[in-house]
Amino acid sequence: MAKLSLDALKIINLIKLTGSFSTTARLMNKTPSAISYRVICLERNLGVKLFDRNGPLISLTKEGENIATEGEWILKAIDNLECKLMIKNPRNPVFNLGVSESFSINLLGRSLHDFSVKYPKIKIKINKMKDGSEWGDLESSKLDFVISNISCPSQVDVKSKFIGENKLIFCAAPEYIERNHKKIWCQKDEEGELLAIITNSSLDSHVRYDITQLKIKNKILVNDFFTQFSLLEEGYGIGIVPMLAVKKQLDNQTLSIVDLGYELGREPVWVGWENRNPSRYKSWWIEELDKLKIAIQFDEQDAVQ
C-alpha cells in the first residue's frame, strides 16, 4: 500500500471537517486545483475512492471515512508529541502572539480559551505592540502570529490578510459630556476648553485631533489605552478610541459616544504569520481567522445598536 504523508492526512481531515476543497485550500494556503490534484493522486496511488462528489457537496466514502478516522488519531498523536517536545525544548516553550495595542483584545477571548483547552501545555504570551515592529518580529520568528492595525510592509516576507475594521469614536463619561455640552458644540469664534486624553500609540496616525467642531485646548498624552480609558471613565476629558475596545463601557454607560455627525475613520485589522517554520499551532490560528472576522463584524453592529 502506498505511504500516506502527514500532509495528505491533514488534507483528508480538513475536507472531512469543512466539506469543501476550496476552504481546505484556503486553510492550507494552497489553490483549490492543487488540493483537487492531490486528492486525485492519493486515490490513484491508494487504489480507493476517498470522496463522493455531488456538485458542490462532498462526502467521504466508506474507505475515505476509515482513512480519515485513523488519520485523525495520528494527527492528534503528533499534536500531543509536539506539545511534549515544546515544553521540554527551552528554545520555544511559548506561543507568542503580537497584538496592536489598540486592538480589542476581548474579541480574542473565545479563541484564547479554545486554544488553551486544545493545547493545555502550551503557554500563550500576548505581546502588545505600538509602532509596527510586530511585522519585523514575525519575520525573525520572535512572534508566531500577529494581529495589527498596520498593513505588512512589502519588504517583509510573511503571509498577511485583511480581516476587518474597527470604527473610531469620540467618547467621554456621560457627566463630562453633560458638564461640557456647550464647550463641545461651541462656535468657531469661541475659545474652547476641552481636555483631550490621547495615547501615543500607532492609532494616532489614523485620526486627526484638530477637528473644527471640537474646541480642544489641552491634551494629556498617556502611554497605554488602559490609562486612557480609566481617565475617561473618571470624567477627566474626552478621547478618540476604537469602538470595540470600549464596548463594555458603552454597554454599562460609563462612557458615551460624542456624535459628530460623521465618522472619524476606521482602524484596519490585519493578521499575519510566516510559513518557514510551520506548526499545528499556527495552522490552528489560521483556521480561527474567519471566526475572528465574524466577531469583528457582529460586535460592531451590536455596539452600534
Topology summary:
Layout (H helix, E strand, L loop, with lengths): L5 H13 L2 H7 L4 H15 L4 E4 L2 E4 L1 H27 L5 E7 L8 H10 L4 E7 L4 H6 L5 E4 L10 E14 L1 H6 L1 H4 L9 E6 L16 E7 L2 H9 L4 E5 L4 H5 L4 E2 L8 E8 L6 H8 L1 H16 L1
Parallel strand pairs: 3-4, 3-5, 7-8
Antiparallel strand pairs: 1-2, 5-11, 6-9, 6-10, 6-11
CATH class of the largest domain: Alpha Beta
Number of domain modules: 3
> How would a crystallographer describe the biggest sheet?
7 strands, mixed
Mean pLDDT, nearest integer? 77
Strand content: 15-25%
| CATH fold descriptor of the largest domain | D-Maltodextrin-Binding Protein, domain 2
Task: Give the total of beta strands.
Answer: 11
Overall 3D shape: elongated
Order of helices and strands: HHHEEHEHEHEEHHEEHEHEEHH
Which structural class fits the helix and strand makeup? Answer: alpha/beta
Helical percentage:
40-55%
Radius of gyration computed on alpha carbons = 24 Å
Number of helices: 12
**Which spans have pLDDT < 50 for at least 5 consecutive residues?**
298-305
Amino- and carboxy-terminal Cα gap: 59 Å
Q: What is the CATH homology-level superfamily of the largest domain?
A: Periplasmic binding protein-like II
- Assign the CATH architecture of the largest domain: 3-Layer(aba) Sandwich
